[in-house]
């Protein structure tokens, strides 16, 4: 944590065995993304970016829900264009901070993940949800189309599935969310924390350099034409091959032993 009382109250952080858990902590508001909460989360992610001891991040929510989206009361309290522009710009910074973070981010979803909360799930690299979790981009129901959530949603699920969620605003259950690719899998609620921890530990056991290299390349190549993507990733792999961890990993495989990562 950064030591500020405000940030400690809004985002709780715990670290164990290379895994950092960030918990949104506005349970009474269903972890609605207020300006202060988004600021606290952006700040935590900035700290984690520089933390070599953190290999994987879990994003969770305190109380009965993962995240209900933007704080509508806060939004209506300041009906000014400049405020709204700054608010949605800040939200975009937050989502991009997750995507560009060197460490993989796993969403641990329970309750609801709606509007910008659904965007948060879609922005994470991986997501595991409780079987009774529900997802929605319901802005259309209140006259505010979920345009910024649409960016992350449309990059994770098929076009028609995204458009159905965006145009109807209806809730999607965890089974459907898994089917369309919004989450990796749905598990019994009582097994949620254990399943997420197991996945996080599996990734944390890998070379941090290799994981960082792969995550960055994954998102960059997605936006490239096929020929350009192959040229780019060929260069990435050639550079990766020169890393100490690549030599160690290959030698360990050939000699049938466990690798000892140096993360370089």
CATH class of the largest domain: Alpha Beta
Number of strands: 9
Head-to-tail CA distance between termini: 26 Å
Question: What general form does the structure show?
Answer: globular
- Number of helices in the DSSP assignment: 12
CATH topology of the largest domain: 2-enoyl-CoA Hydratase, Chain A, domain 1
CATH superfamily assignment of the largest domain? 2-enoyl-CoA Hydratase, Chain A, domain 1
Main sheet properties: 6 strands, mixed
Strand content: 5-15%
Protein name: Enoyl-CoA hydratase domain-containing protein 3, mitochondrial
Organism: Lacibacterium aquatile
InterPro entries: ClpP/crotonase-like_dom_sf, Enoyl-CoA_hydra/iso, Enoyl-CoA_hydra_C, Mitochondrial_ECH-domain
Function: May play a role in fatty acid biosynthesis and insulin sensitivity.
What does this structure look like?
One of its GO terms (molecular function) is enoyl-CoA hydratase activity. Belongs to the enoyl-CoA hydratase/isomerase family. This protein is an alpha/beta fold. The chain has 2 domains: 5-204, 2-enoyl-CoA Hydratase, Chain A, domain 1; 208-254, Orthogonal Bundle (Lyase 2-enoyl-coa Hydratase, Chain  A, domain 2). The chain has 12 helices and 9 strands. It has helices spanning 5-10, 35-49, 72-77, 81-100, 116-123, 147-154, 159-168, 174-180, 192-204, 208-222, 226-241, 244-254, and strands spanning 11-16, 19-24, 56-61, 105-109, 112-114, 126-130, 134-136, 172-173, 185-187. A 6-stranded mixed beta sheet has the order 1-2-3-4-6-9, with helices on both faces. Strands 5-7-8 form a 3-stranded mixed beta sheet. Helix 2 (35-49) links the parallel strand 2 (19-24) and strand 3. The radius of gyration is 19 Å and the shape is globular. The relative contact order is 0.11.
């Amino acid at each position: 944590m950064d030591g500020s009382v405000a940030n400690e109250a809004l985002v709780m952080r715990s670290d164990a065995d290379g895994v950092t858990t960030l918990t949104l902590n506005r349970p009474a508001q269903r972890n609605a993304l207020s300006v202060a909460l988004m600021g606290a989360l952006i700040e935590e992610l900035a700290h984690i970016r520089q933390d070599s001891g953190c290999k994987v991040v879990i994003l969770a929510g305190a109380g009965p829900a993962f995240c209900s989206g933007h704080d509508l009361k806060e939004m209506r309290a300041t009906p000014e264009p400049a405020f709204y522009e700054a608010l949605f710009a800040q939200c975009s910074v937050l989502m991009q901070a997750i995507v560009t973070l060197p460490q993989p981010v796993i969403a641990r979803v329970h309750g609801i993940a709606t509007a910008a909360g659904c965007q948060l799930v879609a922005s994470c690299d991986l997501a595991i949800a409780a079987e009774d979790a529900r997802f929605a981009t319901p802005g259309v129901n209140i006259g505010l189309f979920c345009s910024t959530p649409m960016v992350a949603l449309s990059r994770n699920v098929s076009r028609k599935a995204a458009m159905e969620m965006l145009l109807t605003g209806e809730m999607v259950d965890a089974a459907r969310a898994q089917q369309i690719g919004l989450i990796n899998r749905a598990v019994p609620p009582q097994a949620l924390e254990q399943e997420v921890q197991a996945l996080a530990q599996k990734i944390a056991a890998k070379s941090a350099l290799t994981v960082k290299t792969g995550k960055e390349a994954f998102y960059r190549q997605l936006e490239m034409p096929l020929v350009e993507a192959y040229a780019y990733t060929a260069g990435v792999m050639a550079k990766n091959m020169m890393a100490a961890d690549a030599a160690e990993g290959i030698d360990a495989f050939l000699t049938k032993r466990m690798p000892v990562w140096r993360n370089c």
